[in-house]
Design goal:
This protein is of the alpha/beta class and 373 residues long. The protein folds into two domains: 251 residues, D-Maltodextrin-Binding Protein, domain 2, CATH 3.40.190; 103 residues, Periplasmic binding protein-like II (D-Maltodextrin-Binding Protein, domain 2, 3-Layer(aba) Sandwich), CATH 3.40.190. It is 44% helix and 17% strand. A six-stranded mixed β-sheet has the order 2-1-3-10-4-11, with helices on both faces. Strands 7-6-8-5-9 form a five-stranded mixed β-sheet, with helices on both faces.
Amino acid sequence: MIRRAFSAAAAAIAAGWMVVSLVIVIAAYVSTADHTSGSASSSSPAAGAASTAAGEVRLGYFANVTHATAVVGVAHGDFAKALGTTKLSTQIYNAGPAEMTALLGGQLDAAYVGPSSALAAFAQSHGEALRIVAGATSGGAELVVRPGITSAADLKGKTIASPQKGNTQDVALRAWLKQNGLTANPDGTGDVSVNPQDNAATLDQFKAGHIDGAWLPEPWASRMVTEAGAKVLVDERSLWPGGQFATTNLVVSTSFLAAHPDTVKALIDGQIAANQWITADPADAQKLVNDQLKQLTGKSLTGAEIQRAFSEQTVTDDPLAASLQTSMDHAVSTGLLKKTDLHGIFDLTLLNTELAKDGRPAVSDAGLSGSEK
C-alpha cells in the first residue's frame, strides 16, 4: 500500500513538483518514520537513544561538477573508509525534485542536492522529511546566452532553459528575471519562456538554435561556453554577498538521522576528507572527477572545460545557512513555493563536532536549527 502511494506521488511530482500536493508521500513517510525510529522531529542525535551504525546507507547525487564532493567521496574512497562496515549504495540523479521524491519515498537515506529542492521537500512535509547536515558547494551556476544578448531587457520574448522546474537554478533564473522586471510564469507564459529540461538536451537545443540561453550548474555552463559559443550574462556569485551561496548541500532523512547518527557522522567525516583532498590537490581532483563523469555519463570534459568548471565554484563543508532564507524568498516570490517557517531544517550538531576535532571553527545555522522561539 505504501509502495503504491509512493509510486503515485512520484508520478505526480514529476509532472509538477512545486504545485502538486505531497500528502500521500508525507503520510506514508511519517508512518514509516514513526514505525522505524519514533517521531521524525526527534532527529537530533542528542535527543535520541544510543546510536548504532546502519548496515547500509543509500546516497544520491548528481554527475555534475557542483557535486564534486560526492563524486570524489565515492571514487576516492573517503566515504567507504569513514563508513567502515556500513555498506555504501549510490544512485545518480539528473535533478533535485526527482531525488527528493526518492528520499521522501524511502529509497534514499541521504542526498547531495540543491537548496531549492531541499526547501520544497521540507515545506511540503511540514518540516518532517529531512535535515541539512552539511554544505558541499558554493557557486558554480551561470546564465549563459547567445552573444547578441547583452542585458535582461534583451531576453523579452526569448526562451531560456533551466534544469527542471523547482530546481535551484530554475528558481534563481525566475527570481532574477522578476527582479529585472520580466515575468516568467510557472506555466511557461510571460515575458520570458522558461523551458525546464535535461542539461544535455539544453546543450543540444542551444546548438540547434531552439533556445536562447540557460541558467545552468557546472559543468554545463562551461560546456555551453566552450562548445556552443555561449557567453556569460550572469555569474550567480555576483548576486550574493561575498559571492557565497549554497549550490549543493548534504541532506539526510530525519528518520535515518534519528536511528543512525553514527552513520551520518561517518558520512560527514568522509565528506570532510574528500573536500580537504579536493582543496589540497585540485589537479588530481579535477582528473578524478572528469574520469568519473565519463564513467557515469559516457562523456568526459575537455581540459579547458573541467578547469573552468572548477574555477567557478568552491567546495565547502559550510551549508551557508544564511543564504537559505533568500532561496526560500526567491521560490515564494516566483510562485513556486508557499512561505514556510524554516526553523528545524538544519541540524549541524554532528558537523560542528567533527570540525572541532580538526581544530576548525563551527559553522552557523543562521538560527534555523530547532523550532522558532
